[in-house]
Amino acid sequence: MKNHISIKLRIFSLVLVLIVSFTQLTSYALEGWHAIGDHMVYLNKNDQMVSNAWMESDGMKFYLDNEGHVLYNKVFEYNEDIYYVNAQGAKVTNYFLEVTDDLIVGNDIKPGLFYFSDNGRAFRKTDTNFIKVIDGKKYAFDEDGHVLKDCWISKTGDVVEDASEIINDGCFRSNHYGVLYQNQWYDFGSDVGADEDFPDASWFNIDQYGDMNGLWMYFGNNCRKYAASDNNAKKLTVQGKEYVFDQYGIMVQGFTKNQNAADTNQKSNPIIAEKIKYYDKITGQLVQNRWIRDLTPISFSESEYNNGSDYWFYVGSDGSIVKNKVMNIDNKKYIFDGFGRLRQGFILVDRKAFFVAEYKGEDLSKNDFVYSVAEGGRLYGSDLSDVYYFDEDEESDGNMRSGKVRVELSDGTFEFDFRKNGKAVGNRNELKLYKNCYYRNGIKLVPWEDTKYGIVKVAADEYKVINSTGRILNSKRQVIIDDYDNFIVILNGRLAGYVKQTNRKVQLKWRTINGITGYYYYDMDLEKKKITNLCIEAGTTEPTNAMLKDIPDDLKVNFK
């Protein structure tokens, strides 16, 4: 009986072992995750380990390599896409990762900053796109999936490394973190530096920019730099302020570039026909209704720019400089030439208000106003243009003068007179009688400083005598002794004769002798003082040629 029981127990134990063994074998062969040594594997329904594939568990995806092992904390390539699995082996999405050599599986991936999108794939440049928006910021990527950090990028997504090509081809700029500049200012000068080699392009003339520091660019909402597509500056409004950028994307500071050659038909006044705007040298903002002082732009005239003389310009309400006109500013009138430069001194103006030429008082003499160019003067154009005077005193602002003005010329200080509209009295070489004085081209005709009287030629056969203040002596009958002790004879307000004093003392007496009335010689040196021969007859209207020759040059105010 015991043997029978023993046999039965041995049989049950064997069955139990077989059942346990079968149970264990069945458990190992079930489809799912299993740990084999240090590795996690996944068996499919055919009891085979899955490899080179993604498997999902609890909403996460895990990658099984070519040996069927789960990868941990690795970056690898799968089906030509790049992925990253974390320390738990789960695929990572929407995540930046600085990939180092120790994370890389294989030799086709290079270290750098990657971004793994919502599908887990590293974003990479394609033929149609290389920019991705991530958390509201834009990043650029290369074909290998690297974020392009701290670099210039062309419009096609290529990194521009050569400094000489950046100014031409650089379209986007990324910062140290790889974020593209967007709706932001950028100091290009500080980035590239003043010593870099720039291309010799007709537009990019380093002279027109001056110091490389402070060359600003602006990157718009699409992250592209604002730049002119042709020779016309590109305009941008930021917070209500207007800015413009040239073909290279550099913010214009100062004058916008002139695209056309100046009209030089009038050589003394080249004219820029197009509108030229002016932008503040510091802020870059459009200037309006303001005086500015600057050099003549190099795009207007290279020679004038190289001359280095600065001028005042005025910018109107539309931001354009005022050119080739007289303009009323704060109830004062100013004149600007064809380049928009404020002109001061004696200005010749043609037609309504077109600048013709400028003359500084210190460069002219009295005779330059008294005589036309044909007569030896140097006020060129005065026969066809109106003469104005715009104050050139250092303390003045260059406004138009009217009324009496004393101006210092090269040979002294003289009185000028200008009408209310600014035109000179005696304009265009006309001898003009005004307030009992004669004027020509604005200057009042007066004797030279060392003489008390002067003689003015009024017409071919008419002369007038003026005193030291320029006033005409309109006496019906008068004899004047000049600084040379000679006689100036006035009849009916005109010069009738000029009589030189002889060695003998002579006076002129008004007498009628033998029916002839006039001035006779009264010889004081004769033993018996008496009237001698007739000197000038009463009806005389002009001196004889011999008398005209006797008049000293110092007394000749406007003739020779």
Largest sheet report: 3 strands, antiparallel
Low-confidence stretches: 1-28, 194-212
**Which structural category do the helix and sheet elements fall into?**
mainly beta
The CATH topology of the largest domain is left handed beta-beta-3-solenoid
Number of spatially distinct domains: 4
Number of helical stretches of at least 4 residues: 7
Q: If you compute it from the alpha carbons, what radius of gyration comes out, rounded to the nearest whole angstrom?
A: 50 Å
CATH architecture of the largest domain: Ribbon
**Could you tell me the number of beta strands?**
39
Percentage of residues in strands: 25-35%
Description:
The protein contains 7 helices and 39 strands. It has 560 residues and is mainly beta. The chain has 4 domains: 86 residues, Cholin Binding (left handed beta-beta-3-solenoid); 122 residues, Ribbon (left handed beta-beta-3-solenoid); 102 residues, no CATH class; 102 residues, no CATH class. It has a 3-stranded antiparallel β-sheet with strand order 12-11-13. Strands 25-24-26 form a 3-stranded antiparallel β-sheet, with no helix packed on it.
